[in-house]
Amino acid sequence: MIRRNLLGTVVRSLSDVPAVCLLGPRQVGKTTLALAVREKREAVYLDLESEQDRAKLAETELYLEQYLARLVILDELHRAPGLFPVLRGLIDRGRRRGKANGRYLLLGSASPDLLRQSGETLAGRVRYLELAPFSVLEPTRRSPNTLWLRGGFPDSLLARGDAQSLRWRQDFVRTYLERDIPQFGPRIAAETLRRFWTMLAHRQGGLLNVAELGRGLGVDAKTAARYLDLLVDLLLVRRLEPWHANVGKRLVKSPRVYLRDSGILHALLGIADLDGLLGHPVVGASWEGWVIENLLASTPGSPTGYFYRTSGGAEVDLLLVFPDGERWAIEVKRSLKPKLERGFHEACTDIGPARRYVVYPGTERYPLAADVEAVSLLELAGAVGRRASKPR
Fold this sequence. Notes:
Blueprint: H1 6-16, E1 19-23, H2 30-40, E2 43-47, H3 51-56, H4 60-65, E3 71-75, H5 83-96, E4 104-108, H6 112-121, E5 126-130, H7 144-150, H8 154-157, H9 162-184, H10 190-202, H11 210-217, H12 221-233, E6 237-240, E7 256-259, H13 262-268, H14 274-278, H15 283-296, E8 304-309, E9 315-321, E10 327-332, H16 342-351, E11 355-359, E12 366-369, E13 372-375, H17 377-388
Helix pairs in contact: 1-2, 7-13, 9-10, 9-13, 11-12, 15-17
């Protein structure tokens, strides 16, 4: 097993709150992480996709009440949404008996129903954590280029070769379209949603234009927006929101849209190997999206990511805003000799970031200007994690 960076956060969170809800797309490694938690704590594990385990919960309250003093792990919780009211009662009962925290670890594939119901019934009792695909900070023993090409889903990244990895990702997309997505939203034709997903891949990193997407798909803008919301809710697509401030300039207000896993992006575009990727028009946008996902995954829940762009051309690819308000401006360049454009300096004048970086594919750290440094993704991801973990 490759140790996930989120493991320590999950264990600490269970000491702070009664329930932790671990969210993430299918096959990202939630169950493996939960079983690692079980090794550290005396825990009961139930897989709600198993008929045998679901049968144990025929009398849910009666069964779970016998484990008030132990951690209970409930996997694929969206299979039993009616559990939430029961869990609330059991959590409150445990509090009265002196067992306040570390009661339940809930695993789900970010179903909108799951989020809505847990928010309504477990308010103040649950902490949400997201398990992203593998990042450059995790000890996968794979090169950065392999991680970029194949993406961070464990079975894709650790496959014997590129062909096997691509086949896994193609099967993953097909399974999501035909089996998983219908569980989470209104019935949508698999081929329609595949076309939509592929259209987003071709527009990686572009500004969202829902009307244009709808026209390309032959549906109205409202329907296209619903398709996008579903993929965002399932943590497969990211809407990177623009940062707004009163700077006296006309700002771009549409979000940018990225497929969150670079490997899924490449599979949808039919990119089989690194040579094919380097010769494809999406290469720059793919690398930009991969860098952004790695930086945002370097620490759970903080900082928040935005981009900044004005109608006059001032632009920052990624603006990290930490909980205390400190801002870092980050430009992404897939060149060993990155050059800063005038728009980046203008944007920094507007934003006033505490730090300014350019992420590039090299390993050496060096100044590009008096207040701007070129750094590797690995180094900057580590710096973001250390900054976010500082006591407030």
